[in-house]
Amino acid sequence: MREQPETITSRAGQGRFCGRTWNSQVLHRPGLDELQAELYALTHRGHRGDAEHYARHCAGARRVLELGVGHGRLLAPLSAVATEVVGLDREPALLAAARRSLRRTQRGAQRGRVRLVQGDFTSFELPDEFDRIVLPYNALYCLLGRRALARCFARVQAQLAERGQFLFDVWSADRFQHSLRSRRAGHRDDGAALVSLFHRGQQWDVFEQSRLQSARQRLDVLYTYVPRSRGASVQIRIEQRYAPSGELERLLAEAGLRVTAKYGGFARERWSPRSEHLVVVAERG
Ligand SMILES: C[S@@+](CC[C@H](N)C(=O)[O-])C[C@H]1O[C@@H](n2cnc3c(N)ncnc32)[C@H](O)[C@@H]1O
């Protein structure tokens, strides 16, 4: 029997919106236009400490590959510590935003050290091996099934240099599933704007609607950006399949990747099923 989806309209303050809640989202279908990409970038600003975490682990690396590079939020911190950074994403409008932001921020020292590639992280093939492959900010949950996860991990394993590391972080599905079981998931329905932001000369109110199908581990989110003074609303649909740590570790092992560290946060907090984040470091073998 098909599970009836649950529709949730939720509201959160700025801090929560910046990604520290179970419903901070992740993915969308390809095909954003320029305005959608800009609004997406403004509302996907990462987690406190994540840039430092990835930069720390990539320090001194010769080649770093960021899968799901998006609008290039992490390109500056990564290219500041590594010799060469390749950013891969399937979404042309986000890659274009990343290029624009690189042109604005790129200092002489970084020039030529960043390359952007359009591709899919379940099937990419690149000529080089990488010392670090990173998949930050819940991007893994963009993969909507186990087979896609397995294909992604197999590609990572194949492109990782001998003593290379694979790093990723997701919001903790273990914690979320526990909160669902104990009916403590933070669902609210007050219809208020999640956040307001200023863009292209006007104020936008951002609303979020989530649709949960727990039997399929799916939590899809629809963002609606409503302009206060003129123009039409803009919507971005994010689909995600969350996966508990046990499932991810099994699939990593099947792909020949061994978890060497597992944290509950970006300051290397000890991981427990109650942690807000799952921050993983894995190696070949
Ligand atoms: C939450 S964003 C992360 C962006 C960036 N890494 C950051 O930390 O700000 C996830 C990104 O993954 C990309 N993405 C999702 N599925 C993908 C796939 N199968 N192949 C390549 N990119 C994908 C999306 O286009 C989006 O840019």
Characterization of this structure:
The protein is an alpha/beta fold and 285 residues long. The chain has 2 domains: 6-24 and 174-238, no CATH class; 50-173 and 244-284, Vaccinia Virus protein VP39 (Rossmann fold, 3-Layer(aba) Sandwich). The chain is 28% helix and 30% strand. The protein has 8 helices and 12 strands. The chain has helices spanning 14-20, 34-43, 50-58, 75-81, 92-105, 146-159, 173-181, 245-254, and strands at 6-10, 63-67, 84-89, 114-118, 130-135, 160-171, 195-199, 202-213, 218-227, 234-238, 257-263, 277-284. A 7-stranded mixed beta sheet has the order 4-3-2-5-6-12-11, sandwiched between helices. Strands 1, 7, 8, 9 and 10 form a 5-stranded antiparallel beta sheet that branches. A hairpin with a 6-residue loop joins strand 9 and strand 10. Helix 2 (34-43) crosses helix 5 (92-105), helix 3 runs parallel beside helix 4 (75-81) and helix 6 crosses helix 8 (245-254). The longest helix has 14 residues, at 92-105. The radius of gyration is 18 Å and the shape is globular. The structure holds S-adenosylmethionine. S-adenosylmethionine binds next to loops.
Largest sheet: 7 strands, mixed
Spatial extent as radius of gyration: 18 Å
Give the SSE order as H and E letters: EHHHEHEHEEHEHEEEEHEE
- The number of domains is 2
- How would you classify the helix and strand content by structural class? alpha/beta
Low-confidence stretches: 1-28
Strand content: 25-35%
Distance between the termini: 40 Å
CATH topological fold name of the largest domain: Rossmann fold
> What spatial order of strands do you see in the largest sheet?
4-3-2-5-6-12-11
CATH architecture designation of the largest domain? 3-Layer(aba) Sandwich
